[in-house]
Design goal:
The protein is α+β, with helices and mostly antiparallel strands. It is built from twelve helices and seven strands. 45% of the residues lie in helices and 17% in strands.
């Protein structure tokens, strides 16, 4: 494919329809022919198209300040400069700071889960991570899963081993009620146990990616999650070592 046509195909696969034309015009003004404008999103956006796109995708390393690097997956044929300047073309990304991997993101979820999409990003980052590489994984969805268990809508084995006080403290956290340090400390051990069961059940999307690449669970890092979704994980993150 010539570059304008390749850009058009990639954007159709990875961007919402209302952003496709604006992005193309930004990248290559005047590149859209009347013929190209007649294409329809449904023609491209099949599971086969997504599979082929992922199989041919390339990983680019974008160097940041210090030891921090961003690893970006983009379609085959995208040059480094275009990948740097047009984030709309990113299919998925991952960050590495020193020996620590974190921040996995699939830009368009129709491409699949992190385990489906981001394996090559982890492999590339691990090659650069040096000795004792590790990963910090989000545990988003943990607090909702626990809340359903407390309400007896799910069977969670760990709950049966916790004291009434621990369960009450954890319940207050799931309800996002402002709590003091004593309440969190009461819930802390139980949160760690529940997080381990959550991960063992394969419910952590980012964690499952690291596990599929040889990462072994080590511990739970409290108050480590600074994302917008930290309240869905009690603010915790899971630590994996490779």
């Amino acid at each position: 494919l010539h570059l304008p046509n390749l850009l058009f195909v990639v954007l159709i696969l990875v961007l919402p329809a209302d952003r496709i034309m604006g992005t193309l015009i930004k990248i290559r003004p005047g590149c859209l022919s009347n013929h190209a404008l007649q294409f329809r999103r449904s023609f491209f956006a099949s599971s086969t198209d997504h599979t082929n796109l992922l199989q041919g995708a390339k990983v680019h390393r974008l160097d940041q300040e210090g030891e921090k690097n961003m690893y970006v997956m983009a379609a085959d044929g995208m040059d480094l400069e275009t990948v740097k300047t047009v984030p709309q073309l990113h299919m998925a990304c991952l960050w590495r700071d020193g020996n620590t991997l974190y921040g996995v993101k699939v830009v368009n979820r129709v491409l699949g889960s992190p385990s489906d999409v981001c394996g090559p990003l982890v492999e590339a980052a691990l090659k650069d991570a040096g000795n004792e590489p590790r990963a910090l994984s989000t545990v988003h969805g943990l607090s909702e899963w626990v809340a359903e268990g407390i309400a007896n809508k799910k069977t969670i084995a760990t709950l049966s081993s916790l004291s009434i006080g621990e369960i009450e403290a954890i319940k207050r956290l799931t309800e996002r009620i402002s709590v003091d340090d004593d309440t969190y400390n009461t819930a802390k051990k139980g949160i760690e146990m529940l997080a381990k069961e959550f991960l063992a059940e394969g419910l952590g999307e980012e964690a499952s990616l690291y596990q599929s690449k040889g990462g072994g669970f080590v511990s739970i890092d409290h108050h480590a999650d600074k994302t917008d979704y930290s309240d869905t994980s009690f603010g915790t993150m899971a630590v994996f070592k490779f």
